[in-house]
Amino acid sequence: MEVTYYGQSCVVFDFNDAKVLLDPFIRYNSLAKDIDINLLKPDYIFLTHCHQDHVADMKYIQSNSGATVAAIVETAAWVRKQGVPDDKVIEFNFGGTLSLPFGKAKMVYALHTNSTPDGEYAGVAVGYVFFVDGKKIYFAGDTALTLEMKLLEDLQLDWAFLPIGGHYTMDVDDAIKAAKLVNCKNIIGIHYNTFPPIHIDTEEAKRKFEANGLQLYLPQVGESVAL
């Protein structure tokens, strides 16, 4: 089981040979210029919300791969409007858990706005917890620090993907608090360094996490991490 980072909040999980893509934003990210998205053939695409920097490559990759797209109801409606067939869209909502061939995926709370690239209402931003082969992985998506995270502390999470860039989401200091709220020591940072407002000092970020007894992983674009 591993995850490959493609910049911003875009990752691909390899779950028992099932490829699960989160928040595809590659061709418009200068940090991911060396990535050939034609090689990405996910079985599933999960969207945390509908902002451009999370959905820009959804339709292209879905058309190339035939992937099934999962999202909150209103974002799923936008996905259909992009021409994704109904039988390739899974809409669900908070509290819902999908049972899929690779494991389970539960939709959880995120504190963030949500609209389509053209400014229409797209529901509420979300996060996900994946349950695969006894491992529990939290993908926070875009979110501010919120006490709702404490509801996850008893899951004994193995990994948490947390935004650390600030400005639009949590910054490093709030992400450290979030890691403690969800009771997870292994953190992979997302949503940072893509454009000026979210540039951070990565070495300082790692030092701060380490000082709090946490491990912050910041893989390079295209790099994989074993889970």
Automatic annotation (TrEMBL):
It comes from Sphingobacterium arenae. GO terms for molecular function: hydrolase activity. This is Metal-dependent hydrolase. It comes from the Bacteria. It holds the Pfam family Lactamase_B_3. Residues 7-191 form the Metallo-beta-lactamase domain. SUPFAM superfamilies: Metallo-hydrolase/oxidoreductase. The keyword Hydrolase applies. Keywords: Hydrolase.
